[in-house]
Amino acid sequence: MNTKLLKQKILDLAIRGKLTQQLKSDGNTADLLKEISSACHPERSAKGAKSKDLKQIIPLDKSEAPFEIPENWEWVRLGDVCELISGQDFPPEKYNAEKKGLPYITGASNFVNNHVILNRWTEYPSVIAQKGDILLVCKGSGYGNYVYADFEKAHIARQIMAIRISDKTLNAYVYNFLGSQYERLKFQGNGLVPGIARSVVLDLTVPLPPLAEQQRIVAKIEEAFAEIDAIEKNKELLKTHIKQTRQKILDLAIHGKLVPQNKSDEPASVLLERITRDNPHYEKIEDEPFEIPENWYWVALGSLSSLITKGTTPRGGNVAYIDNGVGFIRAENIPGMLKINSSNMKFIDSATHQGFLARSIIKEGDILITIAGSLGRTAIVHKSDLPLNTNQAISIVRLYLKKDDFLKYVVYALNSSFIQELLLNQTKVTSIPNLTLEIIQRCQIPLPPLNEQSRIVAKIEELFSTLDQMERNLV
Question: SS3 helix, strand, coil % of the chain, rounded to 5?
Answer without folding.
Answer: 40, 20, 40
